[in-house]
Amino acid sequence: MMGSPVIMDYSTKSRAELIDLCKQRGISGYGGGKSKSELIKLLNRPYRVLSLFSGMGGMDVGFAEQVVVHKNSVVEEFIHTPSTTPDFVNLKRLPFEVVFQNDILPAAKTIAELNGWAHNYHLMDIRDMLKENFAFPAAEVVTGGFPCQDFSHAGKRAGFDSSRGTLYQSFVDVVKRVMPIVFVAENVHGLLTMPEDPIQQIIGDFSDAGYDVKYQLIKCEEYGIPQTRWRVIIMGVRIDKLDKLDEEEWNIIDENQRSCYVRSYFQHLQEPAISDDPAQTVYSKAARLEKGQGQKEVGLDEYGPTMRAEHHGNIEFRRVDGGNNNEPGLGERRLTVREAALIQTFPPSCVLTSPTRANSMAYKPIGNAVPPLLGYIIARKVHQILEAVKD
Predict the structure, then answer these.
(1) Which residues are designated catalytic?
(2) Which residue from 7, 231, 305, 376 puts its CA 20 to 30 A from 25's CA?
């Protein structure tokens, strides 16, 4: 079995032994009379992550930022310290750093910047960057959730007939250029049920790039995330590293299998009229319709529905008149920006609106995002793989 993510303790090794380890692992910069502490810092250098289709940074937060979730969402092993938000906890940081990000949605980049999650963030179509022969930074990991609307059950399912549907090919091209040790691609579960089996073509293209490729269907509600969100996680390990993995199913994520419902994430919130949190004061005023998506209330003692990017104001209701949440005296309304982000497991105090005027710009990036807790669980698996294949 691959172990849990750890920072290695090199304190008992001599300076000469540390230099030898740097040489064995291909780590440069150990010369010049570096001290023992400087050599240890080199050896414990974070793994570099190149992030594609980054959005507001959900996957990247999971890898390299402070993840904050309700304590009921995670096993004790994940927890570092209590958060300032009641019953929320800060998770242990993982040894990754994001060295590149990319997206085309300005609001997503803005939110990442407001929270300090933006790192070498390029607001540009990845296809144009490839055409211009952009010099991508070196990285041990490439991640990305290539646009999923054309594979989604909720969309028109155009698949490879759509220009967005073939954006995964740009992902493949970046992997070919960077040649990371591991890549992670995330997409909707509709990828597994479309005609002509597109998952096999995607796996074939990544395999041709020099990777052993596997996938797993992750049901977020089974991993502590208060939302019914099903995603296909495609992972690849570079072929030259494969013989160091002692498990045939090296990609399977099985940590943190537990349930957490919406109530845990909402119980600390005040109503919009009295909240001093700008993101909790903003919610869609779209009228309730007789049918269609987004017309039901979110049950407090249930999993939330999948947070969608393309809801055009018809985001689900926090409560409806005559609903089942049993909150007498509180009026019917839709989910606030903050509530949508909490269902996605974004930190309870992250910035989601303009600092000068509260607005709903975050709804779409929130719906597009990988839940940070899912990103964290994926990152733990990736770290285990990287440690297992290390020279």
Answers:
(1) 148
(2) 376
